Amino acid sequence: MGKTVLQIGNAAASACGLPQQTTLNGNTNQNAVRILQSVKDAAGRDVFRGQDWVSLQIEHTFATTGATSYDEIPSDFDRLINGTLWDRTNERPLVGPVTAQQWQRYESGLDGLTGLTLLFRIASGYFLGTTHIDKVIKIYPTTSTGQTIAFEYISNEYVLDIAGAKKDAVDADTDTFLFDDDLVEVAATWRLLRNLGMTYADERIEFETLMDERSSNDGGAGSLSMQLRSTWQIRDPNVPDTGYGA
Predict the structure, then answer these.
(1) CA distance 244 to 54
(2) Distance (Å, rounded) from C-alpha 102 to C-alpha 184?
(3) Is the dihedral angle over the CA atoms 175, 181, 186, 190 positive or is it negative?
(4) pTM assigned to the model
(5) Contact 64, 118 (CB under 8 A)
(6) In whole angstroms, how far apart are CA 4 and each of 11, 183, 189, 229?
(7) pLDDT tens digit string along 203-235?
(8) Collapsing DSSP states into helix, strand and coil, what is residue 58?
(9) In the chain, where the domains are located
(10) d(Cα 20, Cα 9) in Å, to the nearest integer?
(11) What angle do CA 13, 14, 15 make, to 5 degrees?
């Protein structure tokens, strides 16, 4: 089990010469308020935003219905992992996300698509019936019914409560994090020093160095290739999608 918010906060406080706290959440003591805010900012702004951590990567699939817009953005969605949207039925990646300008060019009929290629766009503020949907996935051209679309995204639920349930914010001293707590601790230290009006350049460099190390090792790395095309793509780019070998 990782370090709790209270443990991380007290470690940062010790590094900054502040007294240890018995509680942080709900504590109105000015030191406690500063410590807690530093931990929250370190986790949410520095560590969570700094890397697509493997522990936060989630896969989502849905079936097409012949519509152009799909309310298939999960409730814990924070950001899309680029290059992961695939049409599994036809074993093809979707192209995108395209820009608003590109989307309108296709929607207007000026450009068209033939074959199996699909474009996608993440659109916000879209009204689906009478319900306001913050984000939807739009697909062009309209697909047939029953195609399986899959993608991966980063979940915004990076906090664990004492029972192991995931959530998107710190609200208890016993909360832990789904990523490296050492990173949160060193980030909280430089943030707390800055909040106290003290020098923090060395501590920030320590965080950035540790961040580079932990993020580069988080999911491993593929082998570099001198070939002109990616080695993970099995198909030859000169082979047609269909109709060969008949």
Answers:
(1) 38
(2) 40
(3) negative
(4) 0.83
(5) no
(6) 11, 13, 15, 45
(7) 999 999 999 999 998 876 666 665 655 544 545
(8) strand
(9) 5-52+158-217, 54-155
(10) 9
(11) 90
